[in-house]
Amino acid sequence: MTDPDGRRAALARSLDEVRARIDAAARAAGRDPGGVALLAVTKTWPAADVAHLVDLGLSAFGENKEQEGAAKAAELATLRPGAAVRWRIVGRLQRNKARNVARWAHAVDSVDSARLVDALDRAAGNAREAGERSGPLSVLVQVSLDDAPGRGGASLAEVPALADRVAQSEHLSLDGVMTVAPQYSDAAEAFATFAELAQRVRASHPGAATLSAGMSGDLEAAIEHGSTCVRVGTALLGAR
Ligand SMILES: *Cc1c(COP(=O)(O)O)cnc(C)c1O
Question: How far apart are CA 202 and CA 177, in angstroms?
């Protein structure tokens, strides 16, 4: 297989480094490294990079825009036909994109309003009826830890009711919670608060076991506080 610019070799190296960081952080926390999934966030990078990462053994990819993700998923399907790949939306999603997302994405990790829950439930139901998806749409409720507008997320107080609403919907499955650490405060403190909330959600919904927290810059702190999924872009693919 040709790799003229050495891109695959570079991705293999950075993947090794990221995996080593995850392993070290899990061991330092007394956790099994196998309990921390790696979601490669491929926004702005081409489908050819996703194909390299598939060949290197990854199967979960995150995108933050519906249109970019849909196009990339379609292109990957021609580059690696039949590859068992799951796409997740990790960025803010407008309700009018719900219908399209339900056609190609396995999950939406950034659900932060009742209206979005209802739109996604309808969209997933329509997609199933049309034969465009076989299972429910997985959902994480996104938690905002700093109430900063723009980055998305529901407040701590709103999350339990949103989780209930997802759990009661017909075509969504509540898999857990997600957060992005606040930019200008202590990540460890934020992740501790997040872990407490996740535990509360899980007490009512035992299947909601996913804690998606930690990115290139703060994955160690997130793993120390129980993250089960780190979302890594820059450390894997380079600076956007
Ligand atoms: C872009 C993005 C990431 C990845 O961030 P890096 O710092 O590049 O690792 C993770 N989560 C979300 C929600 C993102 O938008």
Answer: 9
The residue nearest atom 10 of ligand 1, judged by CA position, is: 231
* pTM over cut 0.70: yes
Ligand 1 binding site (Cβ under 6 Å of any ligand atom): 41, 43, 64, 90-91, 180, 215-217, 231-235
* Superfamily of the domain at 7-237: Alanine racemase (3.20.20.10)
| Residue 4 pLDDT exceeds 70 | no
Check residue 155 and give its pLDDT. Answer: 95
Extents of the domains making up the chain? 7-237
Which residue of 17, 18, 41 sits with most ligand 1 atoms within 8 Å of its CB, as the best mutation to test the pocket?
41
Does the pLDDT of residue 118 top 70, yes or no? Answer: yes
By C-alpha distance, which of 56, 86, 39, 84 is closest to 229?
A: 39
The DSSP element (H or E) to which 9 belongs, if any, is helix 7-28
Strand partners, 108: 89, 139
